[in-house]
User: What shape does this take?
Amino acid sequence: MPSDDTAIVLFSGGQDSATCLAWALNRYAHVETLGFAYGQRHAIELECRETLRRAMISARPDWQDRLGEDHTLDLSVLGQISDTALTREAAIEMNENGLPSTFVPGRNLLFLSFAATLAVRRNARHIVTGVCETDYSGYPDCRDDTIKALQVALNLGMETRLVLHTPLMWLDKAETWRLAERIGGSALVKLINRESHSCYLGDRTHLHEWGYGCGACPACDLRAKGWSSYVST
Assistant: This one.
């Protein structure tokens, strides 16, 4: 039977996944992280992951014995077959179907399916992901219904009892910052602000009050507005 004290966190290196990692470390005795290289334009986020992991241990030494192995899977085939603004040099805009051009079809479904396979191998019951319906940018694979349906399908198809956790599902970005503060205080907020990466264009040269980014893409806009709301309350 999978261990009820072990979790796999889908960890991209962004604000949401960093907050989810802290959330998991606060709850489970053993936590492993999983990232994906899928040909994303903002692949610099992958370089932020180890810095974030080390910084979290420095901020919370009591988490050191809980943080386990990091895994990175090559899903470059997804980038090869996806014609989106996250995997191609294309404009970030709304498509005719009503979805933003940054939507990568099947991305979260694939990520969670691979996470489930890894969880079985690593004897982990819990899978934690930072998808969010409040700030989900119109992505249908971030919806609560999608995650619940996928949990059922994975457990039926793999004959197991995995649990998909979405601690940010009903939070906006300001509330996500507040969650980080409740877990690790101002030190964790500062860490995530400076070391995580959200910018779709992979810009780590411009430092803003809310962190690094181009300041113009939808991810930067969402993060900036969330930070502004967080610090004003």
In short: Residues 53 and 67 are 8 Å apart (CA to CA). The two ends are 45 Å apart (CA to CA). The chain has one domain: 3-231. The helical segments are 15-25, 44-59, 76-81, 107-121, 144-158, 173-195, 218-231.
